[in-house]
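Follow-up to my earlier ticket, as requested here are the two runs.
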Amino acid sequence: MAKSDYRLQTEIACGPDTVHSLACSEVWGGNNVVDLNVEVPGFMSWVHSRPLQPATLGGDVYYLAVCSKGLLSRIVLADVAGHGEAVSATAETLRNLLRKHMNALDQAVLMQEINEAFRRKDDPPDAVYATAAVLGYFCKTGELVFANAGHPAPLWYHARENTWDWLHEDTSYKQSRMEGVPLGLIPGTEYIQSAVQLGPADLLILYTDGISEATNEAGEELGYEGLLQLARSVPSQTTNTPGTMGRALLSEVSAFRGDSPAMDDQTLVVLQQTTTNMAAYASR
């Protein structure tokens, strides 16, 4: 077993209060069962993933990475069609791409290479068998760069205003420019690179369609707006930590589903902005 695989399986077995703090130049993640608090520069996070039973390796692939100087954090959540070895190969490709580009705030080349990785050789040109949300957070400025490869838009909780909405390229909070990062359409792709300024203690929730496409006993789908309403309905104190928010939202999704079984892998990555760990990373 590879060292990284052993570390991940060890952490999965830890208690709910365990925090894995990523080291500089580390890429952490995979496509197996996990329920863990993870710390990266500028974020405390909670990662929860459950492949559809009886599979132990699912189609949801999650990664968090830290650059060599501890100033840039990158988060990726991908949803790949299928299970097993094919997905694991895509997961390894994503890991390698994140390692290759971990020191680059500009995500354009990374997104171009992800675009190529998500296409199968025998597929028609317009066929895509995976989606991904890719975020990069620059601790020095508090700016978040993001691009979406066909993936559902993350939920965004604005702590100062106590309001929920979406993180997408049409958000009213988007910046018109960012030093050193070309914003707008990424050449060779259909993806848009955008940037926003996160506020103190803001939350971002990345999820896969196993969450948003959950159905209840009447066959009704939760949908994106239903998920947004569930997030707005949870008590405000649950936003104090990413783990409490994530568990509360999963509980609401479960209540919506009732006795209707899960039909797909389910993954949540909850990120909460923080400044408390940045000095520690800068000194490493």
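Run two:
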Amino acid sequence: MTVLSDDDAGESRRSSPQRDRRVRRWFAWLMLGSIGAATGCYIDYRRDCARLRAMAQLVVAGAESPADRVIALLHWVFANKSTKENPRYFLFPRLRATPRQVLETGGDCADKSRLLSAMLREVGIPASMAMCFDPRTGHSTHTIVVAVIAPGTDMVVDPVYDIFFPRPEQRGYYGLLDLRRDATILPHRLDTLCAERPRSHPIHYYNRVSAVYLHASCMNWEKNGLTRILRDFLVRNDDDALYTIARPIVLEEPKLLVSLAAALVGIGAGFIYAVMARGALRHQGDVCKFRVPVRGSADAYDSANTCLAGGMSVCGR
């Protein structure tokens, strides 16, 4: 067995606390930086919400019912800017454009649906993006918005083609489940709108083969293993709930998502720092107790310190 010399033991004793202090300092900075980033992102997100709220309130001024407000905002988002995919994004390209960026420069079906659902929420109407899937391949092909206009009642709107689905004889509007169950609602509505609108309108170029509502859903339950497990559980209990469950807002608001992620990192770093700091204090307390001179002897005091450093010396003899 290798016996450490007094110099090696002293060096080991000094380096270990120094290394622990560096690690604790790193976690402390990580905690402070993450909490600061989370706070900054959240403040920026609230500023964007205020901008969207001001614009949405101007658009819906004079609209009496929730459905009227939905239709007013639908027409406005459809006419706002272009329908090409927005090249802007927040921090990472995968997060895509924020609602405010879409407000300023336009976007495709996913972008405009993100903007419309955000503006609806700002005027008190719960809304969620939803996806249409190609019945042949299962791939997502189009994005729409599902707005809740009354408890248990929703209506579907399409901000790229300026479509909503009124029931016959002004008896309300078709919701997501209605369009899933009845495949004739969409083509009948498209035929009506094509007859009313000029040939230059985008409605004439709607893809009636792939952008259908047969498998429309607010959540992409085929995205990964976890979502598939949740899908199987919900199908066994309530099949309808599977398709109308609203997407979490953090998935539609990039700044809010980054703020939440940074806050979680900060909390985790703070927890690790607290655990390490508590361990260091406990160790320091043990060292103080161990360093109490034995029998009042200076030799015993030196012997105790040598034993603490990991030496093979026998203490208190």
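The only thing I checked on run two: The chain has two domains: 6-20+268-308, 28-264. Let me know what else you need.
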